[in-house]
Write a structure and sequence with these properties.
3 helices, 49% helix, 3 strands
């Protein structure tokens, strides 16, 4: 499991969204599951507006909840 935390990201434009999606695709090609954490409402709206496909990602609101999710998947 790979956790990508974007808590500190204030602005998401098409370049940032593209980089996130490329990182997620590369991670999945290596056989890992991607958990995206720290998405604020404004960032989520921007990702949707840009047409980013987040269907294959697990999203959690905080890094802590992402870590808890990853640990629960190991059992």
């Amino acid at each position: 499991t790979v956790i990508i935390d974007i808590t500190g990201v204030r602005l998401v434009d098409s370049h940032v969204a593209s980089a996130l999606m490329q990182a997620a695709r590369a991670t999945r090609l290596l056989g890992a599951q991607v958990v995206l954490t720290g998405i604020r409402a404004e960032v989520a709206q921007t990702l949707v507006r840009l047409g980013s496909n987040l269907e294959d990602l697990i999203t959690k609101s905080t890094l802590q909840s992402g870590i808890a999710y990853a640990i629960s998947q190991k059992s």
